[in-house]
Amino acid sequence: MAYRPKMMRTLPAAGAAAAVLFFLMVTYTQHLKISSSAPSLAEEVARLLKLEVKSSNVINRAQAHISWECLQESDVRDIINSTENIIVVMPAKAAGTSIKKFAASCNPNTSENLQSLLSSNDALNLLTKSWDMPGIYASHYWVPQALSQLLRSVSHHTLVIYIHREETSRFTSAAHHVFTQWCLHGPPNNHKKFFNKVESSKHKCHVHEAKLVETLKFRPQEMSMGTVELLTCATYSSIEEYAPNMLFVDYKNADILQNLMAEKYCPKLINHSHHIGKGSEYVFVQLQNGGIEVSLSDWLEKKSSYLEWMMGLNDKVSCLVKTRRMEDNLSFCAGNILNAKAVLND
Q: In the 3-class helix/strand/coil scheme, how is 121-141 assigned residue by residue?
């Protein structure tokens, strides 16, 4: 058995690279004596240094946690005024369309068309397409890894605002939106037989309850990418490790947020709401038990407390305990706005 210096037995896992090299010099000669197929010294150094970096990362992840600081409007105003630009992100059905319309109206004319460019794979063209850069960029996020990557890469002078909506509320709103669009414009090819009866002249569509439940389970379109897919362990780790300037805002405060951003970037849009209200009812559900018909809104409201369980909305979730803690803090905060601060552990 190769000699292992006493100091190495007590060395912390994340010791300096110099200590690893010292260990190699002491032990490698012994290793060569007992092994005819020993790797080169360079290979051994590289292997152990990789272990060193990995150990350091594990320890670094444990060195900080997220502190949820409740903010008032005046606090948010100060934060916005101290940052150079704002990136607003949200899942589907969390006031995203109204925020995106606001951002397009607020940004300089030459930068209005850059919103879609930022979402494309050719986002580097943003630097050359326009001299004026958007002060506010707003986008729905559909890929889980995209949010954590943003938080790792964003400048410390940029403010990231996440618009939050509790998942059951978001899911039912998305379901209502998707099925209403199918009624008005026709369902996609893979759901052509969703409605059992369509009254085109009245813009009224009917669906059997069993068919509705079956389709909800598949979570098509806006139903698919929600809160639990975006707020993952990777997202929370990115906040803890990279300490971005980040706020969490309840979606019901979209108008308040717009006014605060407008004060800095486009004063003419203060109190100019882009909120999209609830429309008429077009979809009606034929109940399996009893045969009566109810509106889709009434059906979703009646079943809402069971949907998260029955539809398996949390089946692939990670770090839900952190999301629930954030939601508790958000609901208890009078302004419904939280500052997600990475705080070093003692």
A: CCHHHHHHHCCCCCCEEEEEC
Q: In this predicted structure, what is the pLDDT of residue 44?
A: 54
* pLDDT reported for residue 219: 87
Whole-number pLDDT of residue 247 = 97
Pairing verdict, β 283-286 and 204-208: parallel
Tokens linked to 255: 């108008």
Cβ-contact 285, 295 below 8 angstroms = yes
Q: How far apart are CA 244 and CA 274, in angstroms?
A: 28
CA distance linking residue 88 with residue 283, whole number of Å: 32
Contacts of 160 (CB under 8 A, 6+ apart): 86, 87, 88, 89, 150, 151, 154, 244, 245, 246, 247
Other CB atoms within a 10 A radius of the CB of residue 151 amount to 24
- Rounded Cα gap, residues 57 and 148, in angstroms: 16
Residues of the chain with pLDDT under 70: 1-62, 109-123, 126, 274-279, 346
Using DSSP's 3-state secondary structure scheme, residue 223 falls into: helix
- Compute, in degrees rounded to 10, the torsion defined by CA atoms 27, 31, 34, 38: 180
Q: In what order do the strands lie in the sheet with 204-208?
A: 197-199, 204-208, 283-286, 293-295
Burial class (CB in 10 A: 0-12, 13-18, 19+), 6: exposed
Tokens linked to 141: 């996020």
Q: Give the pTM.
A: 0.77
Q: Which helix (H) or strand (E) holds 240?
A: helix 233-242
**C-alpha count within 13 angstroms, C-beta hemisphere, residue 115:** 24
> Is-contact 308 167, C-beta < 8 A?
yes
